[in-house]
């Protein structure tokens, strides 16, 4: 309670209710056949999105998602102060190349699959502090582009290990603003880089769960809340195994995660889609937040959501050099804007 | 003047004078023989820094630089709210792996060689807004690690083209705080991604100069200032050619850059060091800011400095796919803390 950033060292409390003015999600064909098919704003028929390479497709998906969010609630691009985001590709080319077309100041981030939360947390701080009126917060990932950068090109037809996850082809964009309508970001907990020594680059869930448990415990400690205070606690992409590990780790810390806990990666694909542990990628939590979760908040199903995206901060070089996998998790709390929530769906 | 973030859309004005509580720089052997050899806090004898690979050396340099900044003015690590930074390696492994050891919430950025400014701008906003008491802002680059990632391994002995620059092995760390001592960050201008269609990945100066001119012109417009209002206007690493292009571009925009304009990349190596256009890399502007520039401010030589780091946002994949090179430049204004500037040198 001594720290000046709200409550604890890791948690910022926003006093001016930075609002979610608009949001939009776009996913690939496979994701569009999964659990949340009714909730995505746009489902592609072609994962190349009409482009000549998967990398350019990823950029195209991000651009269309941002345009979708602007259009959906008639947000004028000239009112946007900052575009904040990143992606999984080396040098975050999807985000920075996209930013050319929006001609708005760009804040590039890298937080692997935690980027959606990182961008909303920074955007919320800029809006809350009066440094921005509106910010675009967006991220993207593409299965085929990620596979050939992090693992092997799909053309090789390599077998996937049972602990692996499937990088989501998808994107999500949240537009934050200083208006007084809509759901708002009430808190953000920035995570510490956590490394429990996992070296298996195929087992991201196991690597990321400790970082998730650190941030979650820190959030509860900082804010004096407990799991039951949230209608929904949702992690980014720990997958099935990773979210089971998180439940165990939290129990060791004295917090029992109940039925209000779930994981975007575990949920996004249906059982018969054979993705082993589920979805992953920066676009996984981004597309689920900006479809299912926010639409359920619109509908009044959830009133207070703790959304925590998780990221594995490895590179192919670090893995080849025998390094372990440091991970991170950032959390935000979104509360339902009761005034008008029904209008913005 | 209509925007709520201070002055214009791109520029934030800080009202609470986020202070530079400490700073530190560390460079490699070659850089330590250059122009600023008297100003760096630490010069390595061995660019491997006692490590087994250049990548691990880069991380080690960053960690030592951060520890150096903490030690220099007895800043307690437990008082640090956020570590903010990034580097040039894929997935910013130097920064995120380093962050493990500081056990403080980590905000990972990617802005290529503009990262030092990006981290200070975000850190200053978090401190100014009351979201943090103290932040570490740091970045690093390593010549050999960058060469083998972006171009070719040194072992191949490839010839360097005359328009090329030499990635600086070096790191800089600035610790911002909400105290009332020291120089302070008064403004930040976040840049827009700018692409004039340059495709030569060896000619970064030409690619980055347009982004620098965009941000500089935006800054002057937003703040109503002109080049003469600053004792020093210093770009990150445009190099010789790039800074000449910037002078030309600014003249076309109606701003004449005088003798108070210089470039870290152009200055860091001496003429006989054969680096063609000069230095580059995230560590170039970071090490020059956190040595020569801030020490000259301590000494009262400069009272108001506009520091603008520039970044080329390409990747090897984007270049191989025939893409042009989008670039970005972020600027901050540092003003001398007159109260006590002599004490903190």
Order of helices and strands of chain A: EEEHEHEHEHEEEHEHEHEHEHE
Number of helical elements of chain A = 9
Instruction: Give the termini distance of chain A in whole angstroms.
Output: 37 Å
Low-confidence stretches of chain A: 1-7, 341-345
CATH topology of the largest domain in chain A: Peroxisomal Thiolase, Chain A, domain 1
The most extensive contact between chains is: A-B, 61 and 61 residues
Mean pLDDT of chain A: 95
By secondary-structure content and strand pairing, the structural class of chain A works out as alpha/beta
**Spatial strand arrangement across the major sheet of chain A:** 1-9-14-13-10-11
- CATH class call of the largest domain in chain A: Alpha Beta
**CA-based shape of chain A:** globular
Write down the Rg of chain A: 18 Å
Structure description:
The structure is a homodimer of 345-residue chains. In chain A, helix 1 packs across helix 2 and helix 5 (204-223) packs across helix 6 (239-252). In chain A, strand 10, helix 6 (239-252) and strand 11 (261-263) form a beta-alpha-beta unit. The longest helix of chain A has 20 residues, at 204-223. Helices cover 32% and strands 21% of the residues of chain A. Chain A has two domains: 11-177, Stage V sporulation protein AD (Peroxisomal Thiolase, Chain A, domain 1), CATH 3.40.47.40; 185-336, Stage V sporulation protein AD (Peroxisomal Thiolase, Chain A, domain 1, 3-Layer(aba) Sandwich). Chain A contains nine helices and 14 strands. Chain A is globular and about 50 Å long. In chain A, the strands form three sheets. In chain A, strands 1-9-14-13-10-11 form a six-stranded mixed beta sheet, sandwiched between helices. The termini of chain A are far apart. With 345 residues, chain A is of the alpha/beta class. Chain A has helices spanning 54-72, 93-102, 115-128, 143-150, 204-223, 239-252, 264-268, 282-298, 316-320, and strands at residues 11-13, 19-27, 42-43, 82-87, 106-108, 134-141, 166-167, 170-177, 184-189, 232-235, 261-263, 279-280, 304-312, 327-335. The interface between A and B is large, with 61 and 61 residues.
């Amino acid at each position: 309670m001594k720290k000046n950033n709200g409550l604890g060292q890791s948690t910022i409390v926003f006093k001016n209710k930075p609002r979610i003015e608009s949001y939009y999600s776009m996913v690939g064909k496979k994701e569009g056949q999964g659990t949340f098919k009714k909730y995505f704003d746009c489902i592609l028929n072609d994962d190349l999105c009409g482009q000549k390479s998967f990398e350019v497709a990823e950029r195209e998906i991000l651009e269309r998602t941002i345009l979708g969010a602007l259009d959906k609630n008639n947000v004028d691009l000239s009112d946007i102060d900052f575009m904040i985001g990143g992606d999984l590709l080396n040098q975050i080319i999807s985000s920075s190349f996209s930013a050319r077309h929006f001609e708005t100041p760009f804040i590039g981030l890298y937080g692997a699959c935690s980027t959606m939360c990182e961008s909303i947390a920074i955007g919320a701080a800029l809006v809350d502090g009066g440094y921005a009126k509106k910010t675009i917060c967006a991220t993207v990932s593409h299965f085929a582009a990620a596979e050939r950068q992090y693992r092997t090109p799909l053309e090789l037809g390599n077998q996937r290990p049972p602990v692996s996850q499937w990088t989501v082809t998808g994107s999500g964009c949240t537009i934050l603003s200083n208006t007084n309508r809509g759901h708002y970001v009430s808190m953000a907990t920035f995570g510490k880089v956590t490394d429990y020594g996992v070296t298996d680059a195929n087992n991201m869930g196991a690597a990321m769960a400790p970082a998730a448990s650190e941030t979650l415990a820190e959030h509860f400690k900082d804010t004096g809340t407990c799991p039951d205070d949230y209608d929904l606690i949702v992690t980014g992409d720990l997958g099935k195994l990773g979210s089971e590990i998180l439940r165990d780790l939290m129990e060791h810390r004295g917090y029992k995660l109940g039925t209000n806990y779930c994981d975007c990666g575990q949920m996004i694909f249906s059982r018969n889609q054979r993705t082993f542990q589920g979805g992953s990628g920066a676009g996984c939590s981004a597309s689920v937040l900006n479809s299912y979760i926010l639409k359920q908040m619109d509908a009044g199903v959830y009133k207070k959501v703790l959304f925590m995206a998780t990221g594995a901060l490895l590179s192919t070089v670090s893995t080849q050099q025998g390094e372990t996998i440091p991970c991170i998790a950032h959390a935000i709390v979104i509360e339902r804007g009761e005034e008008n929530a029904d209008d913005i769906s």
